[in-house]
Amino acid sequence: MVRLITHNLLACHAKNCTSNNFPLQFKDIEIELREAEFNPDFIRGFLPKLEWKALIDAAKQLGDTSLPSEQPEMIDDEFLKNLHHVLLEIHIEEGAMICPNCQHVYPISNGIPNMLLAEHEIG
After folding, report:
1. DSSP label at 2?
2. What are the helix and strand counts (H, E) for the chain?
3. Rounded to the nearest 5°, which phi and psi values hold at 55?
4. Which of 53, 88, 104, 119 gives a 20 to 30 Å CA spacing to 67?
């Protein structure tokens, strides 16, 4: 499933695509909101692993502006709930992710990203 928690870890891995290959840009996407159990400890623990600017930009592409542009120093429940929603409850069902460098398209179908490359694209 493509959620922003996953998207924040994905970079293009096409042959010779080694710079400006993160984050992948969304195109023609359809999203679905699905409630997920809130676990503040999980969200707090995942926070240091996030590439914040990439997360904010991706959330904005999906129409969500609930997170601050800079990661706050004071972490309260409201912030954790908003982050939980952005990371775990927004599901990208259809569309594509496109590399900002080589323009390789990774299609998303039924919530599953196709990250496979053709043989000539493998580095």
Report:
1. E
2. 4, 5
3. -65, -45
4. 104
The CA-based diameter of the chain, rounded to the nearest angstrom, is 48
Residue ranges making up the domain that contains 98: 2-121
Report which residue type is found at 46. Answer: F
Spatial separation of the C-alpha atoms in residues 113 and 36, rounded to whole Å? 20
Q: Which among 5, 29, 33 has a CA at the least distance from the CA of 89?
A: 33
pLDDT: which is higher, 121 or 69: 69
Q: What is the CATH number of the domain that holds 69?
A: 2.20.25.10
For residues 1 and 32, give the distance between their C-alpha atoms in angstroms, rounded to a whole number: 11
Model pLDDT for residues 85-104, shown as the tens digit of each residue: 999 999 999 999 999 999 99
Total domain count for the chain? 1
Q: For residues 63-90, give the mean pLDDT.
A: 96
- Calculate the CA dihedral of residues 40, 97, 113, 62 and round it to 10 degrees: 40
- Structure-block tokens of residue 6: 């996953």
